Automatic annotation (TrEMBL), chains A, B:
It comes from Pristionchus entomophagus. Belongs to the acyl-CoA oxidase family. This is Acyl-coenzyme A oxidase. Residues 486-648 form the Acyl-CoA oxidase C-terminal domain. Its cofactor is FAD. The keyword Magnesium does not apply. PANTHER family: ELECTRON TRANSPORT OXIDOREDUCTASE (PTHR10909), PEROXISOMAL ACYL-COENZYME A OXIDASE 3 (PTHR10909:SF390). Residues 289-453 form the Acyl-CoA oxidase C-alpha1 domain. GO terms for molecular function: FAD binding; fatty acid binding; pristanoyl-CoA oxidase activity. The lineage of its organism: Eukaryota, Metazoa, Ecdysozoa, Nematoda, Chromadorea. SUPFAM superfamilies: Acyl-CoA dehydrogenase C-terminal domain-like, Acyl-CoA dehydrogenase NM domain-like.
Amino acid sequence: MASSSPSPGASLDEWRKNATFDGGKMRVILQGGREKLSLKDEIWQTLEKDTLFKKPNRQLSLDEVRLLTHQRWKKVIEYGFVCDPYAEYEKFSALLEVLEEFDTALQARVTLHSNVFMGALTSMGTEKHAKLIEKGNRNEIVGCFALTELSHGSNTQNIQTIASYENGKLVFKTPHIGAMKVWSGNLAQSATHAVVFAQLNVGGKCEGVHGFVIQVRDEKTHRTLPGIRIGDMGEKPGQWNGVENGWMIFENYSCSPDALLNRGCELTDDGRYVHSFKSDRDKKSVSLGALSIGRIGIVGKGVNACRVAATIGIRYSAVRKQFGPPNGEELPILSYPLQRRRLLPALSAAISIGFFQTKMVDLFAQYMARVLSGEKSDELGELSKEVHGLSSCCKPRSTWLGVNALAEARAACGGHGFLYISRLNELRDTYDPSQTFEGENNILVQQASNYLLSQKKQGVLSSPMGSTDFLQSRPCTFTGWKGDSIENVISAYEWLLHHTLNKTEKALEERKRRGEDAFTARNETQIDTAHPLAIAYAELTMIKWAIEGVEEIEDEKCRCVLRRVIGLFALSQLQPHLDLLYIGGYCSGPEFGTRVKEEQLSLELSLSPECVSLVDALAPPDFALASALGASDGRAYEHMVEDFRSREIDRAPFADDLVRVIQANKDKAKL
Amino acid sequence: MASSSPSPGASLDEWRKNATFDGGKMRVILQGGREKLSLKDEIWQTLEKDTLFKKPNRQLSLDEVRLLTHQRWKKVIEYGFVCDPYAEYEKFSALLEVLEEFDTALQARVTLHSNVFMGALTSMGTEKHAKLIEKGNRNEIVGCFALTELSHGSNTQNIQTIASYENGKLVFKTPHIGAMKVWSGNLAQSATHAVVFAQLNVGGKCEGVHGFVIQVRDEKTHRTLPGIRIGDMGEKPGQWNGVENGWMIFENYSCSPDALLNRGCELTDDGRYVHSFKSDRDKKSVSLGALSIGRIGIVGKGVNACRVAATIGIRYSAVRKQFGPPNGEELPILSYPLQRRRLLPALSAAISIGFFQTKMVDLFAQYMARVLSGEKSDELGELSKEVHGLSSCCKPRSTWLGVNALAEARAACGGHGFLYISRLNELRDTYDPSQTFEGENNILVQQASNYLLSQKKQGVLSSPMGSTDFLQSRPCTFTGWKGDSIENVISAYEWLLHHTLNKTEKALEERKRRGEDAFTARNETQIDTAHPLAIAYAELTMIKWAIEGVEEIEDEKCRCVLRRVIGLFALSQLQPHLDLLYIGGYCSGPEFGTRVKEEQLSLELSLSPECVSLVDALAPPDFALASALGASDGRAYEHMVEDFRSREIDRAPFADDLVRVIQANKDKAKL
């Protein structure tokens, strides 16, 4: 075999020549601006030079990956990319983006301490905890967050761990196996401290769920403290073995009452519990408010999943040739409409939700600054509800899209997509849990429909962030395709939102009239009503904010191609709602549905010459993606063969045994 | 913590009490009848007693799993469950079902030799190969099948490996890296022989793709023979590391011309190639006919995937409690309509496609018997086309459903579903490649639409298996819901098939009129036309054959509940086509779509008390499923805790290093 023979694949550079825009400019736009991009690139370059960050071409064992994650975490701290996460917010967020794109587990190792644990201390603690916060910022302790229990995840208000205030001490108990703390990341092996949620018991009375910060391991010996038992949750799919999810059982663990994260409440020296919460809701908003920041972050995980799915899927499809016209050359499979349908919507989602996410993060940062400043205005109350409602449906929408994009990209790459070195299954498994953590998606979306229902009931037609402004519009049925695709899609969504909102409201009223309790009525009105309402709310807001983001772009060529990208996202999101649009009477006859389908096909065709360069603007560096199929040089075949050649086999380890079996079968036949 | 505390979960036995049918009778029905069930149970019992078949609660390394698969394969042979796969067909098929449910890789280890390699020898070879067939049947050789090349999978006619007939010898060459054989299971470590496909070159003329059987390793030393290089493809997801997929490069490997699998053709001693094929199509039907049996088998993989998804998802959801009415107890999550929607369609698919598959396998066996007897009738020709057309869309439909069912079940089990010991991600990854092997699904379905188009063109309105009989009906638009759900669904499908068939045909004609070649025209008319046509064809046939199977059941209670199951399958399959039914004009206004959705909801409610017992009738034994969440005793929490407790950690292996890092950070702060 001639090793100098030409590559069997097509050239990515040929595809790149066809793009209508400047790749460098597009990369700046899609990576969050010049400043953030240069911060990210600097970190990427450092990591790329360090062999510790070279990805192996096989799955590591649990012990191997734990050690490697520990070593990488240590190295990230040593590099000192960021000294103070709060003062250097831009730098810290660039670092987290890089780590997330490099390895989810490593990102989790950092954020579980710096964002989740420290965030809880900051938002729920008081000056009593200032010293611990300082130590945390300097990495002199390792923190974890322990809320979920074996038998309670979504229903956090019903957790069963008990913290009793007895004789001036807080005593933690795990009353039964259902109450053991589970899934706490960093807990199994590294944590010295934990934020723990428990039912606070004072003088025989349960005061409800509260947060506490406790020490779990000795700082010098790193052994578990008496009264606590800690263990590992075992193996998990994807990159998650790198995260030490732990379980914890309390056997009368006792500590100072200063452990209570006492913003708004206090344990007095004479054994009482006092608080300044106006309502139960008020209390919950302190103790569990820390969670909504997580959901907004996870929208970004969906974006990332779509990015890597599109990157690997599109690059490989641009290179892979199969079949062709009679007597012609074989064509790259990306030339086929069906293959574009499998990959281009994921690309459009990565870009569109990316724009949405940028705006959402900005608005959320402004919101949090107002909350932390102690503002208590009505408008802030409204904003708080909107943040909660919108994040509760956008996190599900984004993560579903991301996981599905990776699954589809795997299959679209055919058999070779199934190789470990394609990374697609590992990535799918890596993003899979984003669908269930920080709120199982199907339960979470119910928060969004509840929010819209309560807004409507109270007659609140607009919202601080503008996401419910559609309530002010008068929904119109379809009378003909007018203007561009996005306008038509938005009109259909606005009608659909009114329609499903009214339908849900009526169904709930009807059930209540029949004597059903509110809980049952809500459960029975999810499918075909509240559920699609919440999803449509997420999608419409994503589309609107994405197009807003695009209109602000100065470079005309980039803006022009990105408009088409958002158009494809809008059309592909609307498609699954066509049935409800017809059944509900938004449209009838062939025009609307046919047009939606035709416009999507035509945008996919028009984006075909752009998509390789769009992917270049989104993709992480090759060493981080580490996909033989998705490398930016387009030499997918060569990368596979390089790996294969390193696995040449002369004889299997069990060859002697096999020869014996074969001989025995021969001997048997002779009898 | 009191270890005697009651389980936090609900009881599976309470659910079981609500079923309206006899569980034992149902198990006989759903496991293929009394005889097959007792054959399967016998094998299950033997394996369960053998510790070699105990599943570890962690992922094994590549080397570990290879060795274990080899040992298990050896043990299966030693047990002698089946002496002659052909003479004891029923027993052999029971064995394969058990192995598939136990571990896909082990099943592959057996079938790649016994079915794929031996099947190719039998169907393509002649008396020249009788001796090798005998040796194969006695496991004196280990066979593999090498068709796919690095740059050619779907387009098998364009493979590049060359077999030249020179000086009385066949000489094999791999002309470039794109032509290396890849993905050949059993090749990397075990195979002594391979069926290899190559372009046959005689006297400078290429005679097209032919099959050959060659020896690849020395039988005594088990070393690779000169002129051949073999290696491993590296790691793969799910259970597939147990399969030694290999690559192979030929460097002028030379062997006797008897290697040619010469049914219908011959290499003469004077260096010529002669054949008795009437046409190119005739030749292909010999050399590649061996593949359609594989596709029908893979329909069963989809069924199995749905089975285990439903088993784990439903059992855990019946036990897991979360939320509840105000002041009431928490409810098992299976009580919520949204949770049922996520799991019951998978259960209905497992059962419905199971009935379809049983009939399909029977008909295929009859067909193969006629082919092997040498029959050459027109009716057999028609049957051959139908087998090809139908298997080409049912394999995709079934495997898509199976993989999606596992993904959905994982998320429906929440966080705990993500534990390795739930097995759901491993199973999803295990079934994932069924979507791309033996024909990538999206390419394969095109064979089905091509078949329907050619039938219509030729005016053939009925077919030997009856699957195209709908062509005889006059499609009617919807005029009101009449009779039971299934009748309504079938009418809608028949209309949809006529509609999409006409639409595809017209679109193709229009494109040809505009001068497009047939290849391009076909590619451009997949989305929204040929693709949904093929899918609908698969679904309608599955529904019809499933209901036929159910009507033959004697026990009335079983029949009654299974009718509802098939009804749910029918409605849930039709739902995604509602848009085309409205756009195309089958229906307008709310009635049809609303009714389809209402009927599905109501069947899901009515099957809620049945589903745990239905799952019992389908499930593999606990030791084979090996899922902490899906155990038949319903003690999901206890099984998880047992595993967790075995992973109690006092101190991480890297604790010393961690303490040093923390101390260093403290020292830094003091400076």
